[in-house]
Amino acid sequence: MSRPLTATIDLSALRHNYALARRLHGGKVLAILKANGYGHGAVRCAEALAGIADGFGVAAIEEAIQLREAGVQGPILLLEGWFEPAELALIERYELWTALHSLEQIDDIEAAELTRPLTVWVKIDSGMHRLGLAPADFRQAHARLLASGKVGRIVAMTHFSRADELDCATTPQQHACFVETLADLPVETSLCNSGGILGWPALHGDWGRAGVMLYGGTAADRLLPDWPRPVMNFDSRIIAVRELAAGEPIGYGGGFVTERPTRVGVVACGYADGYPRVAPAGTPVLIDGQRGRLIGRVSMDMLTVDLNDHPAAGVGTPVRLWGEDLPACEVAAAAGTIDYELFCNVKRAAFVYHD
Ligand SMILES: *Cc1c(COP(=O)(O)O)cnc(C)c1O
């Protein structure tokens, strides 16, 4: 028997969520597969979306090459562009699309020897203040790219910093800045991540960029009849049971002490698998489908749960860490983080894919 920790990936839910993103956004939508498909397996997710997705987005050329070498066709956008000019040759060779976020990168394009026109997504900093051209530089950048003779297609892109907050003026302000910056220039546009797609229907451009919503993550506090479905079930089992008297500490540090006689289940999942070590006592789990709670400190390979309200549970009982009936965002909230981070951190589990 092998260690029972499993990440079961529902590829039909992924396709459902992609179709939902496309329907809500209109136009075209890139499926964002960076960070190994937010921990779900980028190649398998790309294959599941082949012929359905308008294109894919990744953070780095290594991720793009991995997809190409696995046979993935269609547009793949490097969301952060290139990190050194030598990558431009690979961008051409693997027929990738690339973001451009600085004027220096236009020098790189002008200096590059290319045989095919590039597709460049020019990133404009409309208020996130991370990557992107200052709005005042966009016209000049656009003109230089066209004049270089090396760029065949330009998409203007921006990224919202607070699209998941629906009662916040920042997103409309960023949108207005972006629209003003483009003025009458005839370029395609891309503004929305998942939060924008779900929460800001009036601010969609030509291309959406759907990430966490593809995986059933939360991205806006809005309830839709057709909410994204969870894609990952992160499941393990109880591997041992302890009967403790009141007043007994559990696990490293002894920070949790039983208040009453307690049956404790030891579960094969720990922070080395991506479960957040900082998750406090009370963090929800599903014990054979019933809500239960974490107690004691999460260790590298194991965590402990309270079985007092689960008399039928014993060695072998399934425990869901997150997934259907236990959204990862709930676990994340208890641990002071977001579901994005939980998904990205999953490792060492056996990955099982269902169509
Ligand atoms: C990661 C990323 C996205 C996807 O964001 P989600 O919130 O996961 O939908 C979109 N655009 C850019 C530029 C990104 O880096």
Description of the structure:
- With 355 residues, this protein is α/β, with parallel strands linked by helices.
- It has two domains: 11-215, TIM Barrel; 232-354, Lyase, Ornithine Decarboxylase, Chain A, domain 1 (Beta Barrel), CATH 2.40.37.
- It has eleven helices and 18 strands.
- The chain has helices spanning 11-25, 34-38, 42-48, 61-69, 87-93, 103-111, 138-148, 170-182, 194-199, 328-334, 339-345, and strands spanning 6-10, 28-32, 55-58, 76-78, 97-100, 118-123, 151-157, 188-190, 207-210, 232-244, 249-250, 256-257, 262-267, 284-287, 290-295, 303-306, 318-322, 350-354.
- An eight-stranded parallel β-sheet has the order 8-7-6-5-4-3-2-9. It has a six-stranded antiparallel β-barrel with strand order 10-13-16-15-14-17. It has a two-stranded antiparallel ribbon with strand order 11-12.
